[in-house]
Write a structure and sequence with these properties.
This protein is of the alpha/beta class. It has 2 domains: 6-190, Rossmann fold (3-Layer(aba) Sandwich); 223-322, Helicase, Ruva Protein, domain 3 (Orthogonal Bundle). The chain is built from 13 helices and 11 strands. Strands 2-5-8-1-9 form a 5-stranded parallel β-sheet. It has a two-stranded antiparallel sheet with strand order 3-4. Strands 6-7 form a two-stranded antiparallel ribbon. Strand 3 and strand 4 (90-95) form a beta hairpin. Helix 2 crosses helix 10 (260-276). The radius of gyration is 21 Å and the shape is globular. The two termini are 21 Å apart.
Length: 326
């Protein structure tokens, strides 16, 4: 068993105090911290997407900025730009919100292509270029983006090149009635406390820092994975490009399969899951727990899949059932 940092794992308790009934989401947020990978959160309004991102930022005491993406947003609103200083009579670069450590890109699919292009460089290269000058972003830098699948008018679907930059694509569903009752009671208690003390109730912050996160990443990098599991990961990804091997019908639904970047993402996410489970080695269950979130945004389906109501998750499940587990 790995000697995981008690300080880092305390953030789970911090998140559970703020988020009810979203254990899978909490794990994915921690995987993002441990790997430095970005996350796309998709779900209807009111499922604590924004609350979760704010909680993870406060939990590691990282600088945080929420950016509301709208069609009229300009690249300089994201990256910053040069402003003339009348006192010095020189142009000075004023950093934009992208220079924070954790970015909440709210409703990212409402951003026009120019904004998406600027964000793409930041996510992939961890730097931004303005007026020919390249500036580095913080070492701890994460983009946690949200999008609402219910409303598509006035949106700009993310290009495949940008979707591939997200480590995970997490789909959220409504909570169970029991969890929703707990959410109601917590909100009622917070409202009562706010009225009685005339101040907002506060939940104790997590004791960890960005330094703890970077130290934990070094441990995740040393997680052992057997060569048979490495091949298993590659087999899963390559089958998305040749679904005819799985059965005679599935191949007709896939336009493009996942790229080799998906193999790297699945490997990293599996190692992080092993770390969260207190192990210094990966087991098949670690891979299975993150495979759908890792691959669903990297597979492109065609019209046949839409007409037959075939989802990406259906095809991923077929692959897992087809391949023998090492």
């Amino acid at each position: 068993m790995i000697n995981t940092q008690p300080e880092f794992l305390k953030i789970r308790t911090h998140l559970e105090q703020l988020i009810v009934g979203q254990d899978a989401l909490i794990d994915r947020l921690l995987i993002s911290l441990l790997t430095g990978g970005h996350i796309l959160l998709e779900g209807p309004p009111g499922l604590a997407k924004t609350t979760a991102v704010k909680a993870i930022a406060s939990g590691v005491h990282a600088s945080f900025q929420r950016i509301q993406f709208t069609p009229d947003l300009m690249p300089s609103d994201l990256t910053g730009g040069e402003i003339f200083n009348p006192e010095t009579r020189k142009f000075e670069f004023i950093k934009g919100p992208i220079f924070n450590q954790i970015i909440l890109a709210d409703e990212i699919n409402r951003a026009p292509p120019k904004i998406q292009s600027a964000l793409l460089e930041a996510m992939q290269e961890q730097q931004v270029t303005v007026n020919g000058v390249t500036r580095d972003l913080p070492e701890l830098f994460l983009v946690l983006a949200t999008q609402n699948p219910l409303e598509q008018s006035g949106t700009y679907p993310l290009p495949e090149a940008q979707l591939d930059r997200f480590l995970l694509h997490v789909k959220l569903d409504y909570p169970t009635p029991e969890n929703e009752l707990e959410i109601l009671r917590r909100d009622r208690n917070n409202f009562k406390n706010a009225q009685s003390s005339n101040t907002k109730s506060e939940i104790d912050s997590s004791p960890i820092s960005p330094g703890n996160v970077l130290d934990a990443r070094k441990q995740v990098a040393n997680i052992h994975i057997d060569e048979h599991l490495e091949k298993y990961i590659v087999d899963i990804v390559t089958l998305t490009r040749d679904m005819n091997k799985v059965d005679n019908n599935s191949g007709q639904f896939v336009e493009y399969g996942a790229s080799p970047r998906a193999s790297i993402a699945l490997y990293k996410a599996s190692c992080a899951m092993a770390y969260l489970n207190g192990r210094d080695y990966v087991i098949p269950e670690d891979i299975h727990s993150v495979v759908a979130d890792t691959l669903r945004h990297r597979i492109i389906l065609n019209f046949n899949a839409q007409s037959d109501a075939i989802s990406k998750d259906n095809l991923i499940e077929k692959i897992i059932n087809y391949l023998p587990v090492p």
